[in-house]
Amino acid sequence: MTRRAAIVAPLRTPVGKFLGALRELPAERLAQLVIEAVVARSGIDSARIGDVVFAQSYANSEAPCIGRWAALAAGLPIEVPGFQLDRRCGGGLQAIVTAAMMVETGVADVVLAGGVESMSNIEYYTTAMRGGTRAGNAVMYDRLERGRERSQPVERFGVISGMIETAENLARDFSISREAADAFAAQSHARAVAAWRDGLFADEVIAVDVPAKKGRSIMLAQDEGMRADTTVESLAALRSIMKDGVVTAGNSSQQNDAAAACLIVAEHKLTELRLEPIGYVTGWAAAGCDPARMGIGPVPAVAKLFARTKLGWDDIDLVELNEAFAVQVLAVLKGWGWEDQTRLNVNGSGISLGHPIGATGVRIAATLLHEMQRRKARYGLETMCVGGGQGIAAVFERA
């Protein structure tokens, strides 16, 4: 029997700004909240969940193996196992397709898949203190920046200062201008603002009650990073991050806090479990690329995916491409030879909504699947670049 993987109840928290409203909630609590929401929204008997897989790119020992930790915190039965994975920016999508493979191969009938990141709470650390130090100073590393600098082995690829350098490489390779990058970034904000104004995120976003001082709390119900006043002119006034570069803070993705999750369910179990699917996982692929040009990863990943599924651009109704940088998006479009922006990121993405690394892949899936329902689209493509030189892509079919 062919076991098709259905997607049920994709939900997400609002995306919080760096050191913004969600800063008081560490990653494990954000993950706990979205697990609780998926269980409640779907109506699943949590004892029927066969496993919990969660992506997190900046893990630490405050909540090790966050899939298991958050499942226990959310009150799932202790018999339900859980684990954690990391494919950097593509981790959330990897959690979905890993759960789908588990369902397709009969390992489980129901898997809860998600992703989380609290970039506001990524810590500083040292590697010098385990054996002690007799004198002198110990270096404290910013894990957030260090993860970008150490995304590839220096002895093979040399020093790459970080993701901004990789984006500037693509801007040169594909002749992406500052004006084009700023125009794309302004469009991302405009689309996100319009989507919130028109209530398009209502079915996917859960409000989060954030603890505040003196026993009070703040209810966050909307993404914090989008800016209604963003224009090409306001973006043009920003200084480039690298000398004579194209990339600015305004045409790059944000650093954010969020969690997102869904159920992946064997199709033949939907009726028994009284679950309503929103879509199905049709296929996926990952591919490597030059770490110094990591943003181009979606080009080989989508080529591999299309070869595997026998689908092509004419079959795809909507595309979600993570907006790590505006220049990365524009370079990928040129690499694909496909530039129909009426089907691309129609409600904004990383530049406007934010890029909470481990959560992004599931956040995008939630947004894409709900938009596919509204438009009665058959196929949606989700794809993203990955720090260290990878791309990942998946096709979903509307239920």
Low-pLDDT sequence parts: none
The percent of residues in helical segments reads: 25-40%
Q: Could you tell me the strand content as a percent range?
A: 15-25%
CATH third-level topology: Peroxisomal Thiolase, Chain A, domain 1
Multimer state: single chain
Major sheet characteristics: 10 strands, mixed
Contiguous helical run count: 12
In the CATH scheme, the class would be: Alpha Beta
Structural class: alpha+beta
Q: Report mean pLDDT, rounded to a whole number.
A: 97
CATH superfamily: Thiolase/Chalcone synthase
In whole angstroms, the N-to-C terminal distance is 19 Å
Number of strands: 14
Radius of gyration (Å) = 20 Å
Domain count: the total is: 1
**SSE string, helix = H, strand = E?**
EEHEHEHEEEHHHHEEHEHEHEHHEE
Backbone shape = globular
Query: Which CATH architecture would you pick?
Result: 3-Layer(aba) Sandwich
How do the strands and helices of this protein lay out in sequence?
Layout: E1 5-12, E2 16-17, H1 27-42, E3 51-55, H2 66-73, E4 82-85, H3 91-104, E5 110-118, E6 124-125, E7 141-142, H4 143-149, H5 154-157, H6 163-173, H7 178-197, E8 208-211, E9 217-220, H8 232-236, E10 256-266, H9 270-273, E11 279-288, H10 298-309, E12 318-321, H11 326-336, H12 357-375, E13 379-386, E14 390-398
Parallel strand pairs: 3-4, 3-5, 12-13
Antiparallel strand pairs: 1-10, 1-11, 2-10, 5-10, 6-7, 8-9, 11-14, 13-14
Helix pairs in contact: 1-2, 3-12
Write up what this structure looks like:
The chain is α+β, with helices and mostly antiparallel strands. It has a single domain (5-122, 181-398), classed as Thiolase/Chalcone synthase (Peroxisomal Thiolase, Chain A, domain 1, 3-Layer(aba) Sandwich). Helices cover 33% and strands 21% of the residues. It is built from 12 helices and 14 strands. Strands 1, 2, 3, 4, 5, 10, 11, 12, 13 and 14 form a 10-stranded mixed sheet that branches. Helix 2 (66-73) links the parallel strand 3 (51-55) and strand 4 (82-85). Helix 1 packs across helix 2 and helix 3 packs across helix 12. The radius of gyration is 20 Å and the shape is globular.
